[in-house]
Amino acid sequence: MKDIRKNWLLYLMFLPVAVYFVVFAYIPMGGVVMAFESYSRQGGMFLSEWVGFDNFHYFFASGKAWLVTRNTMVYNVMFLGCYTLFSIVAAVFLSEIRRKSFKKLSQTLMFLPYFISWVTVSAFVYNFLNYEYGIVNKLLHYMDVQALDIYSNTSYWYFLLPFLYVWKWVGYGSILYLAAIVGIDQEIYEAATIDGATRLQRITRITLPLLKPTMIILLLLGLGRIMRGEFDMFYQLIGNNGLLMDATDIIDTLAFRSLMGSADFGMASSVGLYQSVLTLIIILTANWLVRRYDREQALF
Amino acid sequence: MRRGIRGRLWLGAALLCMLIVLGLTACSRNADKQDVAAAGSGHEKEVKLIGYLIGEAPKGMPQVLQAINDKLKNDINATIELNYIGWNDVASKYPLVMASGQDVDFIFAADWNFYVTEATKGAFYPLSQSMLEQYMPRHMAAMAPEALRAADVNGTPYMVPTSSPDRKVNVALFRKDVMEKAGMTQITKFSEIEPYLAEIKRDYPGMIPLNLDSQYDLPTPFAYLMLEKFAWFTAPFDSGDPLAQGITADMEDPAAVMYSMAEEPILGWQKEAAYIMKDWYDKGYINKNPYANNIRSKDNFCNGKSGIAFGNSIDMMNVFMSCKEQGIEVYPFPMLYPSGKAAESSWLNNGVAIAASSKNPERTLEALDLIMEDPSYAYLAYYGIEGVNYTITPDGTVGLPEGVTSESNTYPPDAAGFWFVNKNLFKPVAKSTESYKELQDRIQPLLEPTPLVGFLFNSDQVKSEIANLKSVSTQYAQPIYIGAVSDVEAAFDTLVQHLKKAGINKVKAEVQKQAAEYIASR
Predict the structure, then answer these.
(1) Distance CA A11, CA A13 (A)
(2) Nearest one of B227, B480, B472 to B333, comparing CA atoms
(3) Average pLDDT of chain B?
(4) For residue B449, which phi and psi values (nearest 5 degrees)?
């Protein structure tokens, strides 16, 4: 109690966050029971018939459980890696730009894709890449090169998906890292300059090592989303394209596709629960690894 | 200290939960009370009814709705508010609207649009003969009694079927100018249209012979090819999804023997169709990316981007007229069974249901009674405002007012989604084209009743199998439908293997059981 009275302002500032999480993260957890029920409108969330693990049957009987789990993880690891790498590179470059107007301009341009929804992006991409009218194929046609059938070949998408992901998110990520760079004590750089360190040396010896704590925290937070596929992106870009599906199907799209017609809450929440359990395991493992390596950097 | 905070939190959480529970029970109690109150009273209290229809609101909707509401306010002290569920996301949004508990009073319902699924889930308000007689007297007088019986799900009707079931067939439109150049005078079989496709590929740059969209058109050419083999329903009985593989039967077979599409003879017929589609796809007659294309071929036909338009004889009426206005002559090719007949639409092809959550089911029924059966309402809902969107010509037909073309009409007939109104009330349409009239005259005698047409499959017992069949079909069957596979045999091997794993045989047993019960009950 004394603690609350003493730091009441801090607690007050914490309150909205606490309320947010209680309302949007803790209370909805009650819905987990639906994963074990055959949901009916009369029974509602808590009084529907209890069916145990029947709802999970559909997901594992699809024969694709392992494939989509793997795809979800592989894509997200790839996304997280590319995103972190390019965000840091962009942040370092931005911080080294001296001319203010150019710096602002490039930052704005990089940030812009963040505001474009995947629905719009998918329309761009379709108009760029489709076989008959796509800009890319029109250009290839003028250069007398064979047209590319991008929407029926998985190989292009292994590059396109991470590329689009980075294109959309790098502006946002670079700002996080740029903020960390701005927070680094300028005197360190001045001292290094006086000692004759080149620009490259200042980056590799000062900036990057000092970015590590930020990077680890952001990576750990990113890992928390690793089983949650970027549903918007996959659904809008690939949709129901069966030709690409083995390479691009993730848990979220598989669940959405099979369940959207039936709107069966029980089966849908069983998939959600499966994702959450895997995520929990991944976060605990990652945090444990970080803690073993460096206690200070771990989240908890 | 820490324990103290935690204690507080618990207390807070407990309070919150109690509040929520209290709120929920209070709501449901309120609803009960209102139900009771509304049943006894007349129209003293003004109500707003919220309706959902399929498609997109035409531009002239606000004016038309205003006119309808003025009349409704006068007659039964109610107004309606309309929302639309777009064609592209019917499959996801329709169940969602019903499940979300948002305010819905009435919603479009049809056997092809999740009627049984939603009815068994308890999404619709249970109706009864006596209730309908009380609140929809005009409609009950106009509708055939078997229509209501056809709507029974577990003994209770959950929808109000239209009193004028459509007499329509699916139809493909070809361009006469292309046919002439390709040296064709008529089309008797869909599998023999290759010269037509080749002609477009050769001489019409910018036009794709088969420019398919991701929903409606994608399985349609394949379906036309299948229909040369047997009287196919064009969608399996289990999921009712034309894009999915499942259980089917010869629609003309009186015994209604069920086949899974993964077994002979259906499988062999599928393969034959698939070889033709692959041939066409490889020759570049089909757009490479139907999955990402949202524009139906019928909307791309008159502007010269698609060589063939797919639709049905009612929703294509506008295409006939638009093409004529642009000087394109069309050749219709109806989708018929090998016997040369086509199935009559079921009673439940168009209708409307009351949402279980509706607070004013009685008033909603009264409003619908007026809209469906009172000519002044029905004309408004279906054709729009007289003098603006349509006009009655001196010779007693429905035509367009002067200066309005079917392209510029802000409220085209049939477009607003009021498909369940009694169309027998309307005068014949004046300005349909010659070829449309010919088509109508030709198909009307071909429509026949089929043994399974009213069969409604209840998927409760096999829902996870059906979810998986759909998912497998999306990945392995859809590329086959458009011909985008490198090896037809191998593609079918994979498909069949996955269908079996997904439990197609279990679904077959369930469909067989229910179909036998249905046939016996008739």
Answers:
(1) 5
(2) B227
(3) 82
(4) -75, 145
Residue B395: pLDDT above 90? Answer: no
Give how far the C-alpha of residue A94 lies from the chain's centroid of Cα atoms, to the nearest Å. Answer: 23
The band of B138, judged by pLDDT with boundaries at 50, 70 and 90, is: confident
Assess if residue A129 is contained within a domain.
yes
Candidates B13, B208, B478; nearest CB to A22 = B13
Q: Is A140 within 8 Å of A204 (Cβ atoms)?
A: no
For chain A, give the percent of residues with pLDDT over 70: 96
Q: Let me know: does A172 contact A162? Beta carbons within 8 Å.
A: no
Establish if A122 belongs to a structural domain: yes
Position A163 scores a pLDDT of: 92
With 70 as the cut, is the pLDDT of residue B23 above it?
A: no
The answer to whether B464 contacts A61, with C-beta atoms less than 8 Å apart, is yes
Nearest CA in chain B to A249: B475
Q: What pLDDT score does A105 carry?
A: 92
pLDDT value, residue B431: 60
Contacts of B287 in chain A (CB under 8 A): 131-132
Interface of B with A in 386-445 (CB under 8 A): none
> What does the pLDDT average to over A122-138?
84
| CB < 8 Å to B88, chain A | none
Instruction: Kindly state whether residue A20 falls inside one of the protein's structural domains.
Output: no
How many Cα atoms are found within 13 Å in the side-chain-facing hemisphere of B312? Answer: 14
Inter-chain touch A4–B5, beta carbons under 8 Å: yes
* Alpha carbon distances (Å) from A35 to A51, B1, B426: 9, 37, 51
| Cβ neighbours of A257 in B, within 8 Å | 470-471, 474
Residues A233 and B265: their CA atoms lie apart, in Å, by 40
Does the distance separating the beta carbons of B123 and A267 come in below 8 Å?
Answer: no
Q: Averaged over A244-267, what is the pLDDT?
A: 77
Q: Is B264 within a domain?
A: yes
Is the pLDDT score of B407 beyond 80?
Answer: no
Cis peptide leading into residue B265 (ω within 30°): yes
SS3 content of chain B, % helix, strand, coil (to 5): 50, 15, 40
What residues of chain B lie within 8 A of the CB of A57, using their CB?
464
- B120 has a pLDDT exceeding 90: no
Per-residue pLDDT tens digits for B31-68: 443 443 344 447 778 888 999 998 888 888 898 889 88
Cβ under 8 Å to B: A residues 150-189:
151-152
For residue A69, what is the domain's CATH number? Answer: 1.10.3720.10
Does residue B149 sit within a domain?
no
Please, which residues 206-235 of chain A have a Cβ atom closer than 8 Å to chain B? Answer: none
Give the domain range for residue A166: 64-249+285-297
What proportion of chain B, given as a percentage, has pLDDT over 90? 3
Across B402-412, b (16+ Cβ under 10 Å) vs e yields eebebeebbbb
Is the CB of B478 inside 8 Å of chain A's CB atoms?
yes
**Mutate which: B474, B485, B499, vs A, most A CBs within 10 A:** B474
- Establish if B471 touches chain A: CB-CB under 8 angstroms: yes
- Residue B433 within a domain: no
Portion 258-297 of A in contact with B at CB < 8 A: 258-265, 267
Q: Does residue B417 fall inside a structural domain?
A: no
Q: Which of residues 8-67 of B touch A (CB under 8 A)?
A: 9, 12-13, 16-17, 20
Under an 8 A CB cutoff, do B471 and A152 touch?
Answer: no
ipTM: 0.71
Cβ contacts (< 8 Å) between A245 and chain B: which residues? 474-475
Contact assignment for A254 to B463 by CB distance below 8 Å: no
Looking at residue B30, its pLDDT comes to 42
pLDDT recorded at residue B31: 41
What is the number of structural domains in chain B? 1
Instruction: For residue B157, list its beta bridge partners.
Output: B152
